[in-house]
Design goal:
Blueprint: H1 7-18, H2 37-45, H3 48-61, H4 66-69, H5 88-100, H6 106-113, H7 117-128, H8 140-153, H9 155-158, H10 176-188, H11 198-202, H12 207-218
Helix pairs in contact: 2-7, 3-7, 5-6, 5-7, 8-12, 10-12
Bound molecules: heme C (2 copies).
């Protein structure tokens, strides 16, 4: 449904976004290279005072994200991903990819380009700290089948609980529709996320594997 965001809506959202006082200003400290952002997030997380300031900035910047990604990063739309509990390095990497057009989604590309490095750090800190509200699976038999497939083919990278680490995405509790859509895109070599390590991992998946694994993964906490 939300494949295309009307331009008018995008404009409203972006202008709303730019009215946040902290966001329109240039960063005071020298602008760091985006590749340093991961290291900077770690430093922020290790320092309580910096964490608090960054979290606050991030929670303000995230207000505009809530329109689609939900309050505190728990999306209520099946084809829009949760950002809650996501690994900060993964969030930063996806923001980088959107901002340079490596990952394609027109609306996100424009929005992320407008963010300052400090906002990106704050956003990563804020969403990573939110709890994912996992919904129990509606179909246990489907999820059980998916578990067997997951353990054999996915666990090595995404972990036993599906929480990933660093650049390995957290997929536990992710929206079912988004998981299905994303796995099919990887498998079919869609141009929206090219060159991912996920391409070989999904090559042999049938539509049934995709729906069982999505049911299982979305039920993980
Ligand atoms: C108008 C709706 C909308 C708004 C507002 C929005 N997003 Fe998104 N975002 C999406 C959709 C849809 C996707 C999934 C794109 C796809 O299918 O690949 C997405 C994907 C993402 C992803 C990748 C998630 C993943 O699991 O790979 C990140 C990170 C992200 N958005 C961050 C943000 C941030 C930060 C904001 C606010 C500054 C924001 N988004 C605002 C619709 C939105
Ligand atoms: C070799 C390691 C590896 C294996 C095996 C692997 N993944 Fe991934 N996966 C990744 C990495 C790294 C990413 C980060 C995104 C990217 O590079 O596209 C990712 C991303 C994803 C995403 C996108 C998350 C998001 O929020 O958009 C999903 C869904 C996913 N993997 C599911 C799976 C499933 C299901 C399996 C098993 C069939 C699997 N992965 C096997 C490494 C792996």
């Amino acid at each position: 449904m939300t494949k295309r965001i009307p331009v008018a809506l995008a404009t409203v959202l972006v202008s709303m976004f730019l009215t946040f006082p902290a966001l329109g200003q240039p960063a005071k400290d020298a602008a760091p290279a985006s590749t340093d952002l991961g290291a900077r997030v770690k430093a922020v997380q290790a320092n309580p005072a910096q964490f608090e300031a960054s979290y606050k900035l991030g929670s303000k910047a995230a207000a505009v994200c809530a329109f689609c990604h939900g309050d505190n990063g728990n999306s209520v739309k099946s084809d829009i991903p949760n950002l809650a509990g996501q690994n900060p390095a993964y969030l930063l990497e996806q923001m980088r990819q959107f901002s340079v057009g490596e990952r394609r989604y027109e609306f996100m590309e424009g929005l992320i380009k407008a963010l300052k490095p400090e906002d990106k750090i704050g956003i990563a800190v804020f969403f990573a700290s939110q709890e994912v509200q996992t919904k129990p699976t509606a179909n246990t038999a489907l999820a059980d089948k998916g578990k067997a497939y997951y353990v054999k083919n996915c666990l090595a990278c995404h972990g036993e609980q599906g929480r990933g680490s660093e650049g390995f995405a957290r997929i536990a509790g992710q929206q079912t529709g988004y998981l299905t859509l994303t796995l099919k895109r990887y498998r079919d070599g869609s141009s929206v996320r090219q060159g991912s390590v996920m391409a070989p991992s999904t090559k042999a998946m049938t539509d049934e594997d995709i729906s069982t694994v999505s049911a299982y993964v979305s039920s993980l906490k």
